[in-house]
Amino acid sequence: MLEIWLSVILVTLYVLYSYITRVKNNAPGPSNWPVFGCLFQLESSRLHISLDRWAKKFGPLMLCKMGSTNVYVISCPRLMKKAFAEKGYSDILNDRPDTFIAKYIMDDSKGVIFGKYGLTFTRMRKIMYNGLKMYGVGVQQFETMAHKELDKLVQSISDLEGKDFDPKPILSRSLANLIGILLTGSMVDESDADLIWEYNKNFNDTFELSTEFILYAFPFLRFIPVEMGRTYRRLMEAKKQLQDKFFILHKETYVPGHKRGLIDVLFNLQSQDESNGDTQWLTDSQIKAFIQDIIVAGLLTTRNGLLCILLVLLHHHDSVERMYEEIVDVVGLERSPSLKDRPTMPYTEAVIMEALRYVTHAPLGVPHGAMEDVELEGYIIPKGSKLITNYWTAHHDPAIWGDPWMFRPDRFLDVNGELLPPEHTLRQSLVTFGTGKRVCVGENLAKSRIFLYLTTLIQKFDFRLPKEGTVPSDDPRTFLPGALLRPQDYMMRLTVR
Ligand code: HEM
Asked: Which residues bind heme (predicted)?
């Protein structure tokens, strides 16, 4: 008797559940289990691989129910542009969904990356964009300090005298210094760099789909002594120490009007607002979230990108040699490459574009959220749905790229060796940094750092395989999984030219 009642209750619950969460005019997608949706069919740490498989079957807009959430996956550049950049869609589909990270780590979606779409977000984003433009690309002082950091990097590699080395710790340290310079106007010391990396590592572990999903559904688990609870507590401890270091110490030594780095730019804005009687808008917690944003978004993305590109170049020595020839032609060997050389170095630009396409190390970007019901490609996307941008499939679609699994920088050049114009279909299909109103704020900074690191290294050193052992494959399908992909650890040799 009990079994019959239980069955009746379960069937009723299922019917109710399906009715409440039903989507009118469903987009195609994988089959779903009650309550769990398609979660059991997903390889959660290699989500991009599962979604790629389904995108080939179900098309560029598909619906994957994850738990009770409708998740729409967009897998072609044309549709990404329509959804996130076109009028009629861009004010609806550029929200960020509620997530564990946004709520518990980013202090209720403060800051830019996880900020809810609206006026405060738009103002924060503008400040970040202008601040990065000022400090990241244009300001001579930052450029000079960045060059000093690169000189240190070159020196430490020269000291290795052509021995095998692991590029990961050296790049990590150097890029952490750059972020330190950007935020505070000065380099970070060893212990601060460690702290930044400890924060980043735990952040990345928590950002993993499976961990995020479980913690979002059962937030009390963050207090339980299981691995994800421990990761959360390590992350919170690192966050507190980062805030003590970058926010509290900096505020104590802040002199109005001074601009030691981006944090001072924010303090200046805050004090201007206060003197105008507007204390509501730029709060201390927003400034703290802003600092976290720069570290979270700016460091691992660039470090992993460079690690991927170096590995690809180890496998393509012909590209290293062509870049070297271009450097000799444009820069010479007397001075270091600088950002003003970039527009006259099309081959180097093509290598960077092609490497970022080929590896697509941020395969699914950051999820978007729908603020209202909206029709897209004949399907209704209901309010509250999540949207995943599937850059991985977009960048490896044979219909666009022909031979997507070949690393071929020349695809971005015309017959005269010049870069294809920005409106060319291939350039338009390259969406490494997203598109529309949430496009990456650090795109210019990231591309200019990658340019400076690569050209400086190639001007000074020849790229060689390690003497001991072999290098792992540069095929991105073999890379270590996660929200940001990276290759298996590898050794390389750089010999002074
Ligand atoms: C190779 C390096 C990088 C890659 C591949 C990358 C990629 C991305 C992607 C795909 C997005 C999501 C776009 C969307 O939601 O539609 C994003 C957002 C963002 N990125 Fe980057 N990024 C990189 C470096 C950086 C750097 C260096 C910074 C800053 C220092 C940065 C700051 C941000 C911020 C603040 C957002 C959130 C924008 C928003 O929500 O409005 N990124 N990035």
From this structure: 440
